[in-house]
Amino acid sequence: MTGSLVARKRNIQCRTKVKTGCATCRIRKVKCDENKPFCQKCVDTGRTCDGYESPFRFFTSQPINNAHTGGIKSGAGLQPVRPTLTEIAPQAIDLLNRYFSTKTMFDVKLGCDEEARQILQASLTDPPIRHAVSSLRALREDLETSGDVPASVAQQTPSYGYGLQQYCMALGGLASNLSSPGSNGLKSALLCCQIFISIEQVRGNYVAMAQHITQGLRIMHEYRARPNFVAANKLVPAYHDQLPFLDVFIIKLFAAPCKFADPPATADISGTTVSVCLISPHQQPVESRDLRTIAPDMRTELTRIAASTLEFLDKVSHVESAGNALRLLSEKASLLDSLESWLIDLELVHTEIRPPGPELISVSFMRLFHQILKIVLLGVLDSSPDLYAELRTENDRLQGVASNVSERIKAYRTCSGTRSGRGERSKIR
């Protein structure tokens, strides 16, 4: 009898050491099969599977004594408030930073650590943001494990379905927040918008991505400081100066290197690599040029304009007077002129050497990036009556470019999936 009790006790002790698995199995202290998004053991037994622990790790810092910051002395008969701050682990920031863009699947660095930290911090208390992060995680994991082929070619996976479910919950929760007075809806909307843009990139739906971009930039324009052209020397204040900089985030996503646009290279005698397209496209004989060598050159110039735009936006974020804002308008005009010149050069090259059939996807992506930069710049430091009509025209143009990109990507993925099956990932990003 004693031996039986000892064996039973040992068995119970072994069963309690559940370190992984879904939350339901961990509470029950049983082995989980870790099927995702829902544990099969829970499904078979009719239980609700409460899902898995987030890969985004948080940790709690030491309690903070507010006596110094609040001016309350501990000897005054009041106990100091000692809150705990939940901070975000660096590994979580790195992971979300990688999930922001599919370019990171090819070891491209985005530099969006601060944006990831803001989102993860807000997700602790904001359900729509939390659902959006869960959606992006599930859809990105599905892309990395199942391949880059749409559901029309292969059967939808449970992870993909779970990602869409979380996406819908995020959209519904955000709509509810925005309709509730007193809520921090604007900040939540811009943070969610960042994730929604990334979600639609994973899904290859660039039309929906463009819609999120235009809606988010509209919020940025409404609440950002700008000169008041009706009242001279007046500055329309920034009503929410702590709002996330969505425009900066978008530019970082598109400015990150593209593998399909890297300049081709050849090795010289010493073994170092040199670009084969070092001179201006107009200096090369037409017969020696093609769009595969011109595209990287054109992208280099577009990326330079994007970097200048980021510097300009940083100055705008610190503007404090109408005089400073008006002085920045000349810099804005110069950037818009640079974008216009870039587009003229692209069209000239494209007209001269365009091969039969549709243009390269890399060129279509550059058109999309160009249009986004133009819309960002148009909405900054401007409150003229004609602005909204101009933005509406440019937003419609963006939708057209995005629709073209979506169709090109869809056709490529479908063709790729038909040839090689779902297991082989497309190289178009």
UniProtKB/TrEMBL annotation:
Entry keyword annotation includes Zinc: yes
Database matches in CDD domains: GAL4 (cd00067)
Pfam families: Zn_clus (PF00172)
Keywords annotated in UniProt: DNA-binding, Metal-binding, Nucleus, Transcription, Transcription regulation, Zinc
GO molecular function, one term: zinc ion binding
Boundaries of every Zn(2)-C6 fungal-type domain copy: 21-49
Annotated InterPro entries: Transcr_Regulatory_Proteins, Zn2-C6_fun-type_DNA-bd_sf, Zn2Cys6_DnaBD
Sequence intervals crossing the membrane: none
Entries under PROSITE patterns matching the protein: ZN2_CY6_FUNGAL_1, ZN2_CY6_FUNGAL_2
Protein name as annotated: Zn(2)-C6 fungal-type domain-containing protein
